[in-house]
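Reminder to self: tokens first, then the designed residues, so the page reads top to bottom the way the pipeline ran.
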């Protein structure tokens, strides 16, 4: 099947919306600001590129990558949920669990590109989308989301200025609780499937 036969505006739009909701880059702004504080800077281009490569590679190779390491998708999701849980704990209580001094480039890959942008939820969604839609439409949806991610990452300084220190502190606590709820849901859903 050629590109024009496989391409569908409807499929591309639906896949874009699903990925936008799962990636939730707007909701991740407090986490991005927190990472910037710890590492000094975030490389927007590098984080976007790495997350894009991870998503496309996972779409094409998917479960084969995990099978190669003998890891199930559920186990992968549980591991991702534990990292998100630790980050939420830091945001809510103002403690620091990740003690390593990381540079902007390192923080742009872990935990920003993975598991925040291209996390277990995104990868599980890509496997589900692949079963429903043509691959080219999902790849285009990933491209659109990568552009949105880049725009948000580039705008964090402006957002910081608008919110100010007080606004950022409140946002961190609120999104910390939301992130904790997401981590618990991700853990419970996948741990249940994993131990069945």
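Designed residues (196 positions):
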């Amino acid at each position: 099947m050629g590109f024009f036969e496989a391409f569908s505006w409807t499929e591309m739009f639906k896949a874009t919306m699903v990925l936008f909701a799962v990636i939730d880059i707007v909701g991740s702004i407090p986490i991005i600001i927190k990472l910037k504080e710890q590492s000094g800077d975030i490389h927007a281009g590098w984080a976007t590129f790495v997350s894009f490569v991870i998503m496309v590679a996972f779409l094409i190779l998917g479960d084969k990558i995990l099978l190669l390491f003998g890891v199930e998708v559920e186990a992968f999701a549980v591991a991702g949920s534990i990292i998100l849980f630790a980050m939420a704990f830091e945001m809510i209580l103002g403690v620091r669990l990740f003690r390593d001094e990381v540079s902007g480039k390192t923080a742009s890959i872990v935990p920003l590109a993975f598991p925040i942008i291209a996390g277990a939820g995104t990868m599980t969604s890509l496997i589900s989308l692949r079963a429903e839609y043509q691959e080219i439409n999902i790849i285009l949806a990933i491209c659109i989301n990568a552009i949105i991610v880049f725009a948000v990452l580039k705008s964090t300084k402006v957002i910081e200025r608008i919110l100010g220190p007080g606004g950022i502190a409140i946002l961190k606590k609120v999104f910390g609780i939301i992130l904790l709820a997401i981590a618990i849901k991700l853990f419970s859903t996948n741990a249940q499937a994993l131990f069945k």
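The mean pLDDT is 82.
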